[in-house]
Amino acid sequence: MPGFEATLARDAQTVENALTDLIKNKTCPPRLQEAMLHAVSGPAKRLRPFLLMETARLFSVADAMSLPAALSLECAHCYSLVHDDLPCMDDDSLRRGRPALHVAYDEATAILAGDALLTLAFEILSGAKTIQPAIKLMLIGELGAAASTIVSGQMLDLAAEGRFETSRMPQRLDEAQIFDLQSRKTGALICYAARAGALLGGADAEKISRLTRYGEALGLLYQLADDLLDATGSSEKAGKAVAKDAKAGKATFVALLGVQAARTMLEKLAGQARAAVEHFDKAENLRALPAYLAARVSE
Amino acid sequence: MPGFEATLARDAQTVENALTDLIKNKTCPPRLQEAMLHAVSGPAKRLRPFLLMETARLFSVADAMSLPAALSLECAHCYSLVHDDLPCMDDDSLRRGRPALHVAYDEATAILAGDALLTLAFEILSGAKTIQPAIKLMLIGELGAAASTIVSGQMLDLAAEGRFETSRMPQRLDEAQIFDLQSRKTGALICYAARAGALLGGADAEKISRLTRYGEALGLLYQLADDLLDATGSSEKAGKAVAKDAKAGKATFVALLGVQAARTMLEKLAGQARAAVEHFDKAENLRALPAYLAARVSE
Predict the structure, then answer these.
(1) Which member of A89, A115, A144 has the closest CB to residue B126?
(2) pLDDT tens-digit profile of A242-285?
(3) Which residues of B touch A116 (CB under 8 A)?
(4) How far apart are CA B227 and CA A69, in angstroms?
(5) Residue B21, class by beta-carbon neighbours within 10 Å (0-12 exposed, 13-18 middle, 19+ buried)?
(6) Scanning every residue of chain B, which has its alpha carbon at the shortest distance from the alpha carbon of A80?
(7) What are the chain B neighbours of A140 within 8 Å (beta carbons)?
(8) Range from A16-30, B94-108, B223-237 carrying the lowest mean pLDDT
């Protein structure tokens, strides 16, 4: 059996290949298609689809059944990156070590490619032949709720920067407000990933609840690691511009508590995530994932 | 029984009220919520939800069952208007006689409100308690396909303006290409409206096919009427800026064939639409609709 990192890499490749094929088979204007391909490709860990497929594997769900749900989720994630990177949003010109979509193409194309990817996420789910209708509807409902939550999170994030104030002064959020913002902005889709795998597996309420807790802790950990990377890492390592948060006055734990306390919190969240999947069989990879994500910033 | 215009007005009010209530009951940041409310309100005929509900009524479907599908459709339509109006797209500052969303708020808020409305369209469908699961999945699949098609249509429209050429020269499209562009851009959601009503009503293949033809003719008619209004109408009547198509070098039938030939085509499409629903009982309103839309521009 391949180890954790080999499985992560293999799944990432499977997801990227399948998503690329799927978009290539869509009938749409060439420029839109190329932009969508740009948006879903490039070096990436594919954390969310990996998490969905690994959670489904706990319940012996075949990859053929979980893959469409994983592709749908990755489409929703890539759409959010494309729109968040726009000049009027986070104004990021680098993504996965390559030009952001609106830089590689133009703003109109980026907005439309994002719209098309969000739509595609729901098309994939509704058309997935390997998933039972009742489960499909649950997934569509939960993906809709999660996608709605990440929009709220992005809105709160921009508001916290003072964007909508005449003074343009960044707001000073407290810990609870930052938790809320980040669990919406990053947590929602990561949590959906863990829940979707459980739903595909027909998990009982108690197992769904454990995996939800796992997803919640992992979502916060992931965002915290990202913020730490922004504060302390290089843009080569991050694959995008760094030191942007402080400049934009972004509300992050790192800004509130400092790098050391943020690292301590990172360890705590990794422990919580691990504990939530302690009693599952075949959860070696889910138990390895938190430490792997935390290690990105503690080298 | 109320006549055609009274039913149209009553349904428009029902849809606006229900959509407003639904958004007010959503948990999301106040600014996002207000922007979504702005996007779905204002004087509008609500053609798509009316068409969906009227088609469903042919099959004696209760409004309580068709209304959620109608609200979902109107969300998808309003999202497309908000994104199309953006400065990097059609750069329209007036919509329904009021400031476009990015003018009333800002670009980031408009993009996010559009994203949230598209997401909401799928959330409403997946959560609709009055619709059977199998029909829900069909509607989600068809709405996804239609939403994907309108993105293609907008992309072709921008390309036809020469946006993506270094020369910035508008392309000269032939009649078939304009048909293709417009059936994607405007036709897809109107056609979905007619099909969705038929699907909700459990219509057989032949009836679905007739209503699809009705929707197709009506979609082309609607866009043609809009183009004629742009070429010949006032901005008060249109509720948005006019004479913009010629300025932008937009590919329209009016630009290709002239006003008189476009009016002749309008009459022809109205006849085709009427003929498609000739043999249905209770289709008085569907038969009245084409002439009503055509009359907007022939006064």
Answers:
(1) A144
(2) 666 766 667 788 888 899 999 999 999 999 999 999 999 999 99
(3) 148, 151-152
(4) 41
(5) exposed
(6) B115
(7) 122, 125-126, 140
(8) B223-237
